[in-house]
Amino acid sequence: MHIYYINCERTSTKGEVALLIPHLHFNGDCEEAILLYERAFKTETETIIRNSDYSPDKLKQDNKIAHAVMNIQGHKIFLNDRFGNKDRLSDIAVHLIIMFKDTGELLDCYKIMKPDSITIDPLEELPYSKLAVQFIDRFGVQWGFMVEDFANKS
Description:
This protein is an alpha+beta fold.
């Protein structure tokens, strides 16, 4: 099953907007993932709250990420060090799709993300994308990178 992340906004009866926000869970290496994603997607993390920040008495020495917010390709992503999975399986039911404007942008980002990743589908042209690749990064997050094929848009 592939879930393509789109900006799923809807207006409630009160006029408020509801957003679908992906939440990535890590197994103690969230900070390392944040640094990689900041470099790969040329972004900065908006918020980082550590366990020791919200419960200093109980978790004074716990430097794991309780909650982080970053913006990837114009979409808000939440990240933390809770519920992370050590397994890096290729049968993950959900993954994030990033649509790039051009192949150069895709290749630059993939070059940064590729080390220690597991390739599911190699870089290739598809009927619906000038270039695409599917992989699981070293943190167990499955990504699909594609280039929007504007020529075939109806």
